[in-house]
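2024-03-11 09:14:02 INFO receiving multi-entity request
2024-03-11 09:14:02 INFO entity count = two
2024-03-11 09:14:03 INFO echoing inputs for audit
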Amino acid sequence: MLAGSCLCGGVRYEITGALTGALSCHCSMCRKAHGAAFRSRAGVRTSDFRWREGEELVTWYETSAGTHRGFCRVCGTKLLSRFDFDPNWYGLPLGALDDDPGVKPRRHVFVAYKAPWFEISDGLPRHQELPG
Amino acid sequence: MIRGSCLCGEVRFEISGALSDASHCHCSMCRKAHGAAFGTYAAANAADFRVVSGANRIARYRSSAGIVRTFCARCGSSLHGFDESKPEVVDVPLGVLDDDPGVRPDRHIFVGSKAPWYEITDRLPQHAEYPPRGD
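2024-03-11 09:21:47 INFO inference complete, emitting structure
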């Protein structure tokens, strides 16, 4: 069981089951949405994810066709992405987890769009875009 | 002029003058608010910072005493922050800038609170908490 929550504590979720495919995304949408150097995320099965508190506080914004990013409307914490074209998986930003997910990002994607002020210094694979 | 905007484009701001004191912050509040491994902020003079559009979309959250974080109420992008006891400074998250900020982060702060799933692999100085500039 993994727990996650927003900064104000109004929204809480829990995850049973494994996170998969952890990566760090440097695309401009992720950088904008998070206001950060990059977004680190993993996949979680929708059947393994449950809102425990505050689901009504989650505001969804459709950032590209069929992709919705959810954040807490009180504190702005970036919480979850859902996809109209794939109802079986959510995209989970790792930053809102309260527990150690036991996985680490294994690659960088969309590095062609990387922020000019951030240098990737680890040895993980780097992909110019999103490999298949 | 350095421009910034949120993901949906409703909130736009600009900074005349230089940014300074850029740091990667690994505190739990930055990780939560950004939903990211760390936040990266630089300081702007408040007199140089101007919201150009979308001011009515800017939501505020006071994450600790006197510390206000803002974000776009429509798309959720993290925007500027400030310390109410230092009204002359605006903290700008570099991730929402449209232009090169000029400055580069030169340290990691609050690494004592770092995410267990992120390893710092660069050679910048690491501080367990928040050291004053000049240390």
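2024-03-11 09:21:48 INFO post-check: Chain A touches chain B through 47 residues (CB under 8 Å).
2024-03-11 09:21:48 INFO post-check: Strands of chain A lie at 2-5, 12-15, 20-25, 39-45, 49-53, 58-64, 67-72, 78-83, 89-93, 108-109.
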